[in-house]
Amino acid sequence: MTSGLRKAASLAGRYLSAGKPHHAQWLITRKCNYRCVGCNVWKEQDEHELSATEIKKGLDILRDIGIVELTISGGDPLLRPDIAEILDYASERFITTVYDNGSMAAKRVETLRKVDFVAISIDSLDEAKNDAIKAVPGAWKSAMHTVEVLQKEGIRVAVTPTISQKNLYEIMDLTTYFTEKKIPMWFCLYSYDTSVDSKQLFRIGKANDEFIITDKEAMVNLCNQLIKALKKNKNILMTKKLLETLRRLYETNAERTWKCQALNQFIVIDHLGRISGCHNHNFTGTVFDLPTQWNSKEFQTLRKTYHDCIQCNYLCYIAYSLYGSPKSIISLASDQWKNIKLILK
What is the pLDDT of residues 7-59, one digit of tens each? Predict the structure, then answer.
């Protein structure tokens, strides 16, 4: 059996395992070389982080508790000098996506050969606007060059704009531009953290009036356009169900039609290995504690807290909550093409 088939068989078994989480996001570094206006990670950088050996130990634990899809981000994870060792290990065990702001991936092509996706953040086709959002001159040119290089090199690259009031009216143009080049698109949604608890796992941002979506009618229209485009455009890596949920959120003045599945279907890990159901809440132990904590009374209580939480609208958390159960995974596979077929190299 080839390594690709072994990986696929292992992933399929974990996907269909009930009562286990399937998604993890590991922010393996707080180092970042950008100054994005809608983010404050770069304001809270930390030189301390787990070693590659410690991360690999944690990855084994994630595999054993059922994780299938792993997102590696930061900061910018590609700034780590030991990133090749980490990605090689992760890509053998998970459907692995790596996030990059567009500054590093073109320099790390060989490091990225084995991962399933590299996600590049581009928020506008307007160079000046994009650079203003990133607060780094030349960010747009670097990101566009990176996408071109990765595609030419056969690396599975996707573009991931963050939808905000700043770029709301050009998301369809951005989508058309890249998908016509057969570059997949998936989207983030501008959100910000409201918690001020000192033990919150970490903070992503704070309210910025320029980015908060105020034109709800335009947002509903965008969702309708994307739902329509899904019928023909297989490079939009969103599902109808997710877009309908997002549309409802703006149609009904923030009515939530989902319940959060944090610490049930997904977990978040920071650069020190601390864990939480999602980053908005206090950390509760470390990744190394998961084997003994997962079925604990403490975690059962926390799951109820997360289930009723309405703090955020982070699109990835919504998606993980909508597609958590084995039944929903099968539904997802029928609604859009999934990574599982892409890993059979």
Answer: 766 776 676 666 678 899 999 999 999 998 877 777 778 889 999 999 999 99
d(Cα 28, Cα 269) in Å, to the nearest integer? 8
Please name the residue that has the structure tokens 């100054």: 35
pLDDT value of residue 13: 67
Whether residue 274 contacts residue 201, with contact meaning beta carbons closer than 8 Å, is answered with yes
H or E stretch at 97: strand 95-100
Q: For the chain, how many helices (H) and strands (E)? A: 12, 9
> pLDDT per residue over 122-145, tens digit each?
999 999 999 999 999 999 999 999
List CB contacts of 28: < 8 A, sequence separation 6 or more.
Answer: 49, 50, 55, 72, 73, 74, 75, 77, 80, 86, 271
Write down the pTM of the prediction: 0.89
Interatomic CA distance for residues 71 and 119, integer angstroms: 10
Number of Cα atoms under 13 Å in the Cβ half of residue 345? 14
Alpha-carbon gap, residue 135 to 124, rounded angstroms? 13
SS3 call for 27 = strand
Q: How many CB atoms lie within 10 A of CB 14?
A: 20
Q: What is the number of alpha carbons within 13 Å of residue 48 lying toward its C-beta?
A: 5
Angstrom distance (rounded) from CA 271 to CA 259: 27
Cβ-contact 14, 94 below 8 angstroms: no
- Collapsed DSSP state (helix, strand, coil) of residue 128: helix
Q: Domains along the chain?
A: 3-341 (3.20.20.70)
**CA–CA dist 48, 62 (Å, integer):** 22
Pairwise CA distance, residues 279 & 234, whole Å: 31
